[in-house]
Structure formats: structure tokens, C-alpha cells
């Protein structure tokens, strides 16, 4: 082990790997992963678009090219933002690469960054690998605690504030627009970069406008986007939107990592945006996921009644449920696995991994039938847990 860098020796344990093992196990109904519904992957559409690209694109598409990404895709992406052009877009190998680029660009050992509590597990692990000092700001269903945040900005001088303000992972919550405005004001006052990770924004089940930091704070914010949730994760296609002064540095970090993301997929996706097929596909996802969300809500209410608390997510992929305060969901997870149902215990989404009564349940991957059975199994697991711990 000594031959490895200290960052490897001190690497945080990965619950992600455990989730993936569990998902693979036969007979388990998994609400654990943040996975799309495989039956909705638009295989025929992808085949058609790939064939079209193979027929029409020049041989040069196979050649090495600059790291920023195909102009065809960047200009389509730029249109989704009100304040940005294609020179403010960098195509990435998934938004996970965007996170890695941010760490390379901003974090020296011991530098402070701020995250929501709770926050995205793989980002927390990554920030720890880069030896960041992670500070947490409390999150509620209305947004972050801006008094706490101001105090952290003032006293800790963070390099950036990483947030998922819309349909968050793990909670499914969205900050109110007033909160977003206040965070922008604080970011300007204390000169802190806001990273808006936005993988779930397009999966919107209610008619409500969500403000983005690109509008509120164009020069001091970075937006991370991805096609993993709206198309397929396997294309590994995402993007970063930022002011050009940041983007040039990010581009050079990307060059050092993988030179460029595959252009073939960029052309295909650019075309799908242009011909309107991606939009149509997202509409189908929204219709289906809304029904699944409602099925999980109904099942949770029927099985658990008032013994759990949750907000109905207005978008995204997750329910964040709170059991009775005395329940440790990490222990409940072990019982649930034996009842053939999986979820993610809330503690893994916090820096210190302390026991919590919270759990994240994904509603997009399982079938409606499995959602009903899985929630029943979860209720059974809770009954067994209570019998053991009373
Ligand atoms: C908040 C958040 N950020 C980033 C990612 C990574 O997505 P990608 O597949 O684009 O790398 C995920 C995936 O679940 C996520 O939930």
C-alpha cells in the first residue's frame, strides 16, 4: 500500500461500489442507484442517428481535435443558456469529469470548499481525494441556510461552493428562487465561485420556473450539465459552462486528462438536439417518470402512513424520506437487503457519515410493479428492525 500516493491510502470507502454490487444481485429490488429506466433508452433512435452520421460525416470526424469539443454540439448547448455563447462551453466526458476538472483547477491541499449537507456522494469522495477541507451548509426543502453560508464565506474563504440547487441528489429538493438570489448576492460579496451541478434540471414534473446561476451570476458561476439522465449514461457526454477566463483553464485541465471526448457521440447528440428528437425523448421520460414518482408516493403513504416524512419531488429521480429519529438507516439497510430491497442510507451523503434516520429512494429505475413490491418489502424490513431494536 505504501507505494501508492497518500490520497489513495486515505481514500474514503466507496459506498457506490457496494450499491453497484447490490444492484447486480438477483431478486433484489433496488431503489439504490441513481439509474434511468433502461427500457426507455431510445435504441432505435440512436441507431437511426448513428447511421445518418456514418453516411454524412467526413472521415476527419475520427481524427484528433481540440479539447473544447465539437462546435456543432457547443453551439446547440449555448442556446440553452441566456447569457452564454459556444466559447463558454467545454464538452466533458460526463459531468463527473467536470467535477474532476474543477478539483484540478481550484483545489490545493487543505483548501476549503463548501457543499450542501447532504450532497452528492461521488463528489464528496472526489473532493476528499483532492485533500479539500470540506465544510457543510445545512439544506432544507426551501434551500440552503444562507446565514450559515455567509458565515462560512466570511470566515473560511472557500475556493468554491458546490451545489445541486434543482431536484437535488440525494434529496430531490429544489432551492426557492429567493434562496438562489441570496446565494448569488453572497457569492459576489465574498467573491466565491458557485458550482451549479444540474444533471436533473430537464426532468421536471411540475410547471415551475427554476432560476439558474448562469442567469444570476454569469461570471462567477460554473454550470455542469450531462446527457446521462436525458439520453444514456454510456455516451459519457457532459459539459461545463463558464466565463471564458475559467473555461480556458478548464480546457487545459481536460487536455491533460483525456485530450478530448469522442466526437462521434457529440455529432450524434448535436443532431438529435437540432432535429428535435432529444426534446421529444425527454418528454417521454418526463411522462413515464412522473407516473413512477406518483406510484412511489402512493405506496409510501399506504405502507408507512404518518410514520415517515417526505416532500414529493417536483423533478429528478429521488425521494428523501425521514424515518423516526431513533432509526439508523445504515442498520436498516442491512435488514432491507435480507428482505431483497435496497436503498441508500442517508449518512453516506454527509461528510462525517454519522447515523441518520434519512434514506434516498430512486423511483426511475424500477417498474411500477416493483415499486409497489419494493416499498412493501421496505415496510417489512422496518418492522423487523423495530422488533430487534425495541
Ligand atoms: C449530482 C450529480 N452530479 C454528477 C453526476 C455524474 O453524472 P455523469 O454521468 O454525467 O458523469 C451525477 C450522477 O448521478 C449526479 O447525480
What is the number of E strands? 13
At CATH level 2, the architecture of the largest domain is: 3-Layer(aba) Sandwich
In total, how many domains does the architecture comprise? Answer: 2
* CATH homologous superfamily identity of the largest domain: Type I PLP-dependent aspartate aminotransferase-like (Major domain)
What's the CATH C level of the largest domain? Alpha Beta
Ligand inventory:
pyridoxal-5'-phosphate
Stretches where pLDDT is under 50 for at least 5 consecutive residues are none
The total count of helices amounts to 14
Question: Order of helices and strands, N to C?
Answer: HHEHHEHEHEEHEHEHEEHHHEHEEEH
Oligomer: single chain
How far apart are the first and last residues' alpha carbons, in Å? 43 Å
What general outline do the C-alpha atoms trace? globular
Percent strand: 5-15%
Output the strand order for the largest sheet: 2-9-8-7-6-3-4-5
- How large is the radius of gyration? 21 Å
- Percent of residues in helices comes to 40-55%
Biggest sheet, in brief? 8 strands, mixed
* CATH fold type of the largest domain: Aspartate Aminotransferase, domain 2
The structural class is alpha/beta
Task: Write structural notes for this entry.
- The chain has about 400 residues and is an alpha/beta fold.
- It has two domains: about 5-40 and about 280-390, Aspartate Aminotransferase, domain 1 (Alpha-Beta Complex); about 60-275, 3-Layer(aba) Sandwich (Aspartate Aminotransferase, domain 2), CATH 3.40.640.10.
- It is built from 14 helices and 13 strands.
- The strands form three sheets. An eight-stranded mixed β-sheet has the order 2-9-8-7-6-3-4-5, sandwiched between helices. A three-stranded antiparallel β-sheet has the order 10-13-12.
- Helix 6 (about 120-130) links the parallel strand 3 and strand 4.
- Helix 4 crosses helix 11 and helix 12 runs parallel beside helix 14.
- The model has no long low-confidence stretch (mean pLDDT about 95).
- Pyridoxal-5'-phosphate binds near residues 120, 164 and 226.
Amino acid at each position: 500500500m505504501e507505494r501508492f500516493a497518500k490520497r489513495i491510502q486515505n481514500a474514503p470507502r466507496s459506498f457506490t461500489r457496494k450499491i453497484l454490487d447490490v444492484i447486480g444481485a438477483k431478486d433484489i429490488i433496488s431503489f439504490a442507484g441513481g439509474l434511468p429506466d433502461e427500457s426507455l433508452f431510445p435504441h432505435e433512435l440512436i441507431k437511426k442517428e448513428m447511421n445518418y452520421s456514418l453516411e454524412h460525416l467526413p472521415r476527419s470526424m475520427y481524427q484528433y481535435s481540440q479539447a473544447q469539443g465539437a462546435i456543432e454540439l457547443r453551439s446547440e448547448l449555448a442556446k440553452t443558456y441566456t447569457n452564454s455563447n459556444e466559447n463558454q462551453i467545454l464538452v466533458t466526458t460526463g459531468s463527473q469529469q467536470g467535477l474532476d476538472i474543477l478539483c484540478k483547477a481550484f483545489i490545493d491541499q487543505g483548501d476549503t470548499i463548501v457543499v450542501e449537507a447532504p450532497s452528492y456522494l461521488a463528489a464528496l469522495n472526489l473532493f476528499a481525494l483532492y485533500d479539500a477541507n470540506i465544510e457543510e451548509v445545512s439544506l432544507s426543502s426551501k434551500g440552503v441556510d444562507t446565514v450559515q453560508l455567509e458565515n462560512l464565506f466570511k470566515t473560511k474563504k472557500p475556493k468554491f461552493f458546490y451545489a445541486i440547487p434543482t431536484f437535488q441528489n440525494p434529496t430531490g429538493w429544489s432551492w426557492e428562487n429567493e434562496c438562489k438570489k441570496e446565494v448569488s448576492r453572497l457569492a459576489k460579496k465574498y467573491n466565491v465561485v458557485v458550482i451549479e451541478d444540474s444533471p436533473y434540471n430537464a426532468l421536471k414534473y411540475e410547471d415551475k420556473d427554476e432560476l439558474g446561476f448562469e442567469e444570476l451570476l454569469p461570471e462567477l458561476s460554473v454550470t455542469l450539465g450531462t446527457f446521462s439522465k436525458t439520453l444514456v449514461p454510456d455516451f459519457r457526454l457532459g459539459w461545463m459552462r463558464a466565463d471564458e477566463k475559467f473555461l480556458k483553464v478548464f480546457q487545459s485541465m481536460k487536455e491533460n486528462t483525456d485530450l478530448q471526448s469522442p466526437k462521434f457521440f457529440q455529432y450524434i447528440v448535436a443532431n438529435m438536439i437540432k432535429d428535435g428528437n432529444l426534446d421529444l425523448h425527454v418528454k417521454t421520460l418526463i411522462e413515464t417518470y412522473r407516473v413512477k414518482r406518483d406510484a412511489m408516493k402512493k405506496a409510501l403513504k399506504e405502507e408507512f402512513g404518518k410514520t415517515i416524512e417526505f416532500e414529493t419531488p417536483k423533478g429528478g429521480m429521488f425521494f428523501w424520506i425521514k424515518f423516526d429519529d431513533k432509526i439508523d438507516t445504515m442498520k436498516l439497510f442491512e435488514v432491507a437487503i435480507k428482505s431483497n430491497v435496497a436503498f441508500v442510507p442517508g449518512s453516506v451523503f454527509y461528510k462525517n457519515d454519522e447515523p441518520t434516520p434519512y434514506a434516498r429512494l430512486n423511483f426511475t429505475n424500477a417498474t411500477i410493479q416493483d415499486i409497489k413490491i419494493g416499498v412493501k418489502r421496505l415496510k417489512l424490513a422496518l418492522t423487523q428492525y423495530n422488533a430487534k431494536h425495541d
